[in-house]
Amino acid sequence: MDQTVDEFAAAVGTVDPVSVEGAATRGGAVPGVPVVRAPVGITRIDAAEMVLECGAGTEMADVHEALAEVGQTVSIPGGGTIGGALASGVSDITRLAHGPMRDVLLQTHFIAASGKVTKAGGPTVKNVSGFDLCRLLVGAWGTLGFFGDVIVRTRPLPRSSRWFMTDAEPFELLATLYRPVAILWDGATTWVRLDGDPGDVDTTAAACRLQQVDGSPTLPGPYRWSVAPNALGELRSEPPGSFVAEIGVGVVHRSVPQPRHPTDEAIRQLHDRIKQQFDPSGRLNPGLDPLSVGVGQ
Predict the structure, then answer these.
(1) Which domain holds residue 78?
(2) 262, part of any domain
(3) Is 48 strand, coil or helix?
(4) pTM given for the model
(5) Count of CB atoms within 10 A of residue 97's CB?
(6) Are residues 146 and 197 both part of a single domain?
(7) H helices within the chain, ranges in order?
(8) Number of domains in the chain
(9) How many CA atoms does the CB half-sphere of 270 hold within 13 Å?
């Protein structure tokens, strides 16, 4: 790595306000606040254990390229740095099969508001006891601590990965298909991603009358609504194309923000209590509110 985690901690300091920035693809540093950058570089890839260790400032393009050389990948969207992706907590559209972003991070050394390097999680799958701080840090936008280095869970690259389109009922496809990676629906058209053996993918596509396409649909944005997966059928009353829903997950991509919910105030109070415990002086990414900018799912 280009710097150690301890050197990164020294740059973060212990008293003054500070902001962290990676590739600035998700908003960048807080304006008017001194900026630090996390360590960059891949430390190791253990293909047998299916883990990768790297500095939080490492570009996702470099991560995906290095993993592809050993026939693996990681369920983190491309673009920006790995620390920025984890801090935003926005899961890839492969969540149906691969799980949420918070399941990808196994271990991190993060810089607390006190300037101390703190370890969270464990280096292998199922190697954590007690409260898992990694899950708390993912999606916190750096307001609870700055990622220094990370160990993430990897997965094999599929032999075949293809997108298909159909006008079939998306909820029936969810019940019929064997382990679909993603099912997206805009009220009229359904897109399906299937991974696996090429022959198996061909057989499944033919049986369900799926038409192969170049890729997934363009997602409306910038808002991601969170709803109960079993409530997505209610979207049938809305104009087709005004949304794209991730079937089986409960994420709905829209161009308008989600209305406030009666539980929002309780969530705000819980967030404020956690923030007070981790950063009582508010020095980490000051003024950044994860409940306003965070859309992590």
Answers:
(1) 5-156
(2) no
(3) coil
(4) 0.91
(5) 16
(6) no
(7) 5-12, 60-68, 82-88, 95-98, 133-137, 170-176, 198-207, 264-278, 290-293
(8) 2
(9) 7
